[in-house]
Amino acid sequence: MTNQAAAGIKTSELTDRIIFYFVEHGLQILTAIIIMGIGVLFARWVGNIIHRWLRSKAFDEPVSVLIVRIVKLLIVVFVGIMALGQMGVQITPLIAGIGVAGVGASLAMQGILGNLVAGLTIIFTKPFTLGEYIEVLGVYGQVIEIELFSTTLLHVDNSRVIVPNRKIVGEILHNYGKIRQLDLSVPIAYRTDLDAALSVVKKILQENPHVLQEPAPVVGIASLSESSISVAVRPWVKVEDYVLSPVEIYQSVIDGFRDKEIEIPAPRREVRITNNTI
Asked: Is the pTM value of this prediction over 0.90?
């Protein structure tokens, strides 16, 4: 018998076995296909319900979509295992194998799983949201992206800081929110009319479009130095205006003081020289 004839016989036997399997288990296969179809429809239905619920809780859209996809995948996998069991496949060894593989994978990917759990904790507990300014572990910036494994912060110099989520959960976190308070100071001479100087500063803050009027800006005397009075200027601005606003305010204060002839004193020190005769 030639090799070609032997191959033909093997192919014929394989075809016969496949046909026999489908004939013998045709009803089970059909039932499994129906189960899979129902499972896919059920996954979509559950996903839509969860998506609407997440929207009602004001979750960010990318995070909501990701959670919905995970839920759909879990449902489809569960239904797929049921369908395989309906087709006559022994699912007990399969589930055991998946469990063993899962334990091994979890041990090998402890850091990744830690980030995943921490990411879910951040998503559901919401210690911060997109657009807020936070500081944690000496790192600070505006939150521009929250993912399952990491959180991305935008620094004041437009650089990005990517923080693993497991480094955030459980640490002391300072959340500034979506507005920040500037801490500026302006020196004036002791002989200056204080009411006039404070009035100029308040007017500048009222006219600046980046300064928030609620909460109200804080303007007053901060300290007394040797040669000047330090006026505290502490307005509230949005996080994205935190860098630009001080430049505008200082420029406006200088122009306003010059118009009103309010002196900004230079540091002075009086030195006396005495002749000591022996």
From this structure: no
